[in-house]
Design goal:
Pilus assembly protein, 38% helix, alpha+beta
Length: 325
């Protein structure tokens, strides 16, 4: 009887089959865990990317990014809808903008939390977690954390985690604003470069050394020039228009604006002699930045008389007119 072989297959099967069954079930649960982890990673990644992509406009479609012309968050949304207070977190404790998942979308809410809810509402309700936005100035980041319980067999609890979780981040980019800032900086530097020296900038803020007396008596060209130099805190300068022509400036101020005093004058002489010189200086734009002609009333007259055509011609040349009566 001890050497009898009948029934050995049944005994062996009773040991092997449970092992095969347990191994098969373990592989199924492992595959399910991997699938859930991949699903969490995909959901978190898509949510972070969509939030970052539509961050600059709350009316964008959360999936396609499409929006109607004229629908936006306004010109100054970065001041009130971009968690700008995060920049001062090193001085004042400030928590990042955050919403808890699952959540429902709140239409019309353009705050950072409202933007997060719009994207979070599209995430399946089976996932728990949080969505967070932080603005650190140069880097603006959306973070998504998802998790949900995972029930595994008792014998595999020590091998598999008790929950499935995943984290994803996406950087918010604003290409339109970046192009605008770069273009503004490039244009501004090229316009300002070489036009204003540090010394000239300091002289711009120089207070006049004196002020005109309350009742200045102007009865000649010399007295008009003296009054004008005190008025604009300028001094007489000789400026070369070209190799053969010079221009005597009555009062050149700190901003390189030439002020000319006229007490007795003839329109034809001003039109043919003085105006071409100042027009050339203005067009050159290096020695003189502006020209102002001051006309003073003669003591024997009640007003300063200038023809309308002469006024228009001066304005077309860029010369400013000031009447002192």
């Amino acid at each position: 009887m001890l050497r009898e072989t009948r029934g050995t297959f049944t005994i062996e099967a009773s040991f092997v089959m449970p092992l095969i069954l347990l191994s098969t079930l373990s592989l199924l649960f492992l595959a399910l865990f991997v699938f859930q982890s991949s699903s969490a990673q995909q959901s978190a990644g898509i949510a972070a990317d969509r939030a970052a992509f539509t961050w600059d406009n709350s009316t964008k479609n959360t999936i396609t990014g499409a929006y109607n012309i004229g629908e936006d968050d306004g010109l100054y949304w970065r001041l009130h809808s971009d968690s700008i207070s995060d920049l001062f977190a090193f001085l004042i404790p400030n928590a990042a903008s955050q919403v808890t998942l699952p959540t429902a979308s709140s239409s019309g809410d353009r705050s950072p939390e409202g933007k997060l809810r719009r994207i979070g509402a599209a995430i399946s309700k089976e996932w728990n977690g949080t969505m967070q936005y932080r603005n650190s100035g140069i880097f603006r980041e959306v973070s998504v954390y998802l998790n949900k319980p995972f029930h595994s067999p008792k014998y595999a609890e020590k091998l598999l985690l008790h929950e499935v979780q995943s984290t994803a981040q996406a950087q918010v980019v604003d290409p339109v604003e970046s192009i605008r800032i770069i273009d503004l900086t490039r244009t501004f530097i090229s316009e300002v470069k070489g036009r204003l020296s540090p010394r000239a900038a300091v002289e711009t803020f120089t207070e006049p050394t004196s002020v005109p007396e309350p009742r200045a008596v102007i009865n000649s060209h010399a007295s008009a020039v003296k009054y004008l130099q005190i008025l604009v805190n300028g001094k007489a300068e000789t400026v070369r228009v070209n190799a053969a022509t010079e221009r005597q400036v009555d009062a050149l101020d700190a901003n390189q604006v030439a002020h000319q005093a006229f007490y007795t004058f003839n329109e034809n002489q001003l039109r043919q002699v003085q105006m071409p010189k100042d027009a050339d200086l203005l067009q050159e734009g290096t020695q003189i930045k502006g020209v102002v002609w001051h006309f003073f009333k003669q003591s024997s007259r009640d007003t300063v008389t200038l023809s309308a055509s002469f006024r228009q011609e001066l304005q077309r040349k860029g010369i400013v007119i000031v009447i002192h009566e």
